[in-house]
DNA sequence: GTCTCACTGATACCAGGTCTCATAACCATG
DNA sequence: CATGGTTATGAGACCTGGTATCAGTGAGAC
């Protein structure tokens, strides 16, 4: 079963209708290699309305098929998610994304909950830096 | 010396000009109690142009007079910052913000740098939840 | 007081995203 | 299959947050 079929099964299982527009958006999403903006999908899923692309992205986010990637300037990208809850290390130079294996703050969430009496429901955690490749190319040009 | 004067001194020290517009924006910012959007300041600093408000907010961010508060939906707010680098715990119900004392991920940044060969330059970290007050009011209404 | 350059604000513009609503079509059911 | 109810679509208006342009102003060094 292809990845596309697998996503379609998930939608069916949750009583969402399988429409050509949705399939086109999902196919475009699955074809991305790194992180991407919604606009990229709007361009690549030709003929699908802008609103539908945004609606489908929301669906895919809720189903955990994509994850949100927050860039340093607070703009929102997406990325195909092949695991559960996790965070990212983004190269600010080439855009490469490293998925981090586990949530580094789950312990902290418990501590915070105890210390502050907040019931903690969510968090954002993203790291920015330069990957080894980008660092060495900078070294060469300076 | 008032907080306003203190900020003005900081601007002077860095060779920024003290203009009525800047003073109005800074005064409006310092009058905020929690986190706020730029739009709030646009409304409250009457007569100051939109662009100038945005420019001044950028200045204040660079000078660490305000810090950026990222909401759960990735929208950007600001908050008067009375300390160095830190993170936030935001109540998604009433908007109350708790400043967290220290950066909880500075150790992690070092570990990550070693493990991934990235040079890590920055991060986003924000927590969302419900404060004690909001939790008890929910308990009452259910 | 003069001069210069940083700053301003009106305005146009852009990006990202939502709302509306008439139309289309998916798919459960018979 | 044929039908029907309900879900999804897409054109376009609209909204929010933010930047670019540029002629005009005024802060403050001298
Ligand atoms: Mn996490
Ligand atoms: Mn930190
Ligand atoms: Zn890189
Ligand atoms: Zn609260």
Order of helices and strands of chain A: HHHHEEEEHEH
* Low-pLDDT ranges of chain A: none
Distance from first to last alpha carbon of chain A: 49 Å
Structural class of chain A: alpha+beta
Greatest chain-chain interface? A-B, 34 and 34 residues
Instruction: Write down the CATH class of the largest domain in chain A.
Output: Mainly Alpha
Shape of chain A: globular
- As for the CATH topology of the largest domain in chain A, it is Arc Repressor Mutant, subunit A
**Amount of helix of chain A:** 40-55%
Largest sheet, spatial ordering of strands of chain A: 4-3-5
List cofactors, ions and other ligands: manganese (II) ion, zinc ion
* Beta-strand segment tally of chain A: 5
Q: How much of the sequence of chain A is in beta strands?
A: 15-25%
CATH superfamily of the largest domain in chain A, by name, is Winged helix-like DNA-binding domain superfamily/Winged helix DNA-binding domain
Question: How is the quaternary structure best described?
Answer: homodimer
Q: What CATH architecture of the largest domain in chain A would you give?
A: Orthogonal Bundle
Overall tally of domains of chain A: 2
């Amino acid at each position: 079963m292809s990845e596309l079929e697998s996503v379609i099964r998930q939608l069916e299982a949750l009583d969402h209708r399988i429409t050509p527009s949705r399939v086109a958006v999902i196919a475009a999403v699955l074809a991305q290699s790194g992180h991407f903006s919604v606009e990229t999908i709007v361009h690549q899923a030709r003929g699908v309305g802008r609103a539908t692309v945004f609606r489908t992205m929301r669906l895919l986010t809720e189903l955990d098929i994509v994850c949100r990637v927050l860039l340093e300037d607070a703009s929102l990208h997406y990325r195909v998610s092949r695991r559960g809850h996790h965070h990212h290390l983004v190269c600010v130079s080439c855009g490469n994304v490293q998925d981090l294996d586990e949530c580094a703050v789950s312990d902290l969430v418990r501590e915070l909950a105890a210390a502050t009496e907040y019931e903690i429901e969510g968090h954002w955690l993203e790291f920015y830096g330069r990957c080894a490749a980008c660092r060495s190319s900078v070294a060469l040009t300076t």
